[in-house]
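Ligand-bound model needed. guanosine-5'-monophosphate.
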Amino acid sequence: MNRLSEGRRRLQEQGFLLLSEAIERARTIAICAHMSPDGDALGSELSLAAIIRERWPEKQVRCLLAEAKEVPRHLRFLPMVEELEVPAGADEAPDLFLAVDLSVAARLAEARALMERSREVFVIDHHPTEHPFGNGAIMRPDAAACGVVVLEYALYLDVRVTRDVAMLLFCAIMTDTGRFQYQNANAEAFWAASKLVAAGADPSVVALNVYQSMRLSYLRLESVVMGRITTKMGGRLAYSWVLWEDFEATGAGEDESEGLVDIVRCVEGAEIALLLRQTPEGAIRGNLRSKGAIDVSGVATGLGGGGHAAAAGFTLGKVSLEEAKQIVLPRLEALLLEE
Ligand code: 5GP
Ligand code: MN
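Prediction:
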């Protein structure tokens, strides 16, 4: 059985050809993923750099972070992570800028200016976006993770999938599918995982670092979030929240809070899970998850964010927690009423 339909495969190969041509035209290449990077963002970015170097050793490839923030704790074990640099000075402009795991320019944050100065821009992504930025793009919204597309590219180029590349891509797919448990965990994701384990990825090492190495302070924060879980709509909507003072009280860091929404989604019968999280700047960041067929991306987009049907996010600037609840909860209740 084919993992991709013939039409999609042809489209993807056309994209890969254009990407290879863009790489061949370039001498200097910068790769960057989205702000608040997750396992798919960093795994896809770093492995793509390794793959390009393997095929085109003469190219100068750099890996950028979208923001001058530390790499999240649970991802610091990744191979090549020490290569990640904060956005370069205003005088620099790469020949080619590769944006991975995002297709909305705002999510490049501080790296956006560099992208705009680059001679060419190419996007490789799996978010549902009709109009990605850039001169060229490979968009695979049916792919579980951007890492699946990067693996396809490595196989297309026929380059060696090293152990490091396999670890990076396995982490990308494992995290974006919630350990192969979310609705996007399709046959292609398992096909890719199998290839990567055969190439040397160790799932237990990824799981140990990402899911079984929490600091006690983070677990205390989790228990605060768990204690606050509230349900509405007869249990169909579950939400909880974290205030900045909770981070201070527990000693947990903002960079280890990405998984908190997974606590909320555990509630039996909940169809939508929401976590509201206050940032040190006084904004409220929202993580939305759908456990079934409901598409939460529209609500996220309506609030200035975006994402997938089953996992989306947004940021509300300068609002209190109460205001944020008043803005977000009625939209989710309306969405549930439509079903
Ligand atoms: P998370 O809730 O884990 O931050 O994000 C879930 C999904 O939604 C991810 O695929 C992420 O890329 C996307 N997403 C989160 N926040 C935003 C946002 O502010 N804008 C856009 N366009 N996508 C977002
Ligand atoms: Mn992703």
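The longest strand covers residues 272-278.
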